[in-house]
Amino acid sequence: MSDAFAEVLRVLTLERTGDDEFVGASLPQVNERVYGGQVLAQAVLAAGRTVPGGRDVHSVHGYFLRPGDIDVPITFAVERLRDGGSFSARRTHALQDGVPILSLIASFQERQSGVEHEEPSGLTVPPPEDLASNGDLFSAIDHPMARFLARTAAFDIRHVGPPLYVQPDPEPTTHQALWMRPTGALEGEARSDRLLNAVVLAYACDQVMLEPVLRAHHLAWRMPGISVASLDHAMWWHRDVDVSDWLLYVQDSPSARGGRGLGTARVYTRDGALVATIAQEGMVRAPR
Known about the structure:
Elements: H1 3-11, E1 15-18, E2 21-24, H2 36-48, E3 55-64, E4 74-83, E5 87-96, E6 99-110, H3 134-139, H4 144-152, E7 155-159, E8 175-182, H5 194-205, H6 211-216, E9 227-237, E10 247-257, E11 260-269, E12 274-285
Antiparallel strand pairs: 1-2, 2-4, 3-6, 3-9, 4-5, 5-6, 7-8, 8-10, 9-12, 10-11, 11-12
Family: Belongs to the C/M/P thioester hydrolase family.
GO molecular function: fatty acyl-CoA hydrolase activity
InterPro entries: ACOT8-like_C (IPR049450), Acyl-CoA_hotdog (IPR042171), Acyl_CoA_thio (IPR003703), HotDog_dom_sf (IPR029069), TesB_ACOT8-like_N (IPR049449)
């Protein structure tokens, strides 16, 4: 397992300080703010730790309220909204110094049979082995930021089209596709831990959810003057997911207006099973 992914798993190990309260740490970031995917994943994990056994997370709706400070511990206060015959609902507030930085509601369901269908990806894309990894791209750039990203990259991301780390897409479009998996793997009992797999996916996806918005408007992450921040996040898990294997993100941006852009993603396994659908709106302020 890579050191970077081991660090992600470390911050996804919360300290329980009460029946419905947990405390977690944060990973270093260049901007010294808590990474949104981290606090989102930790909040879902805290909620899941209060749910009766045999109930899996199937949806989350959350709001990023304030920037988080990476040097301040995060308290996760869980409210037990309901435990019904089949479903459980939880609200989690992520707090620093008593002030919420994220608030979400998560729903969990007993494993049950029922009607089934799924929309295929509709794409024919190269396998990840034929595409360049973000780690190789970062390692080839002689810049302090690139060196930090190469050292701390916990996920191997391989874009089907041009990546947006430094340069915009020369052919702007609202669509993109990419493969992603951790730079390590869940091992032993962790690999079959449904909640852990679900929260690792929540952690990972926040890195790329707004890229279709950037791609549509000829923008790139390191463009001078750009400002991007997650505002809210919705996620639905449809099937069990093994995050240790490659997952295909099929992404789109249906709209951007007023300094906000919406990104969506359907997440598929290598054999074409739809495991999750994700939507995120973010602030996107482009340089003038």
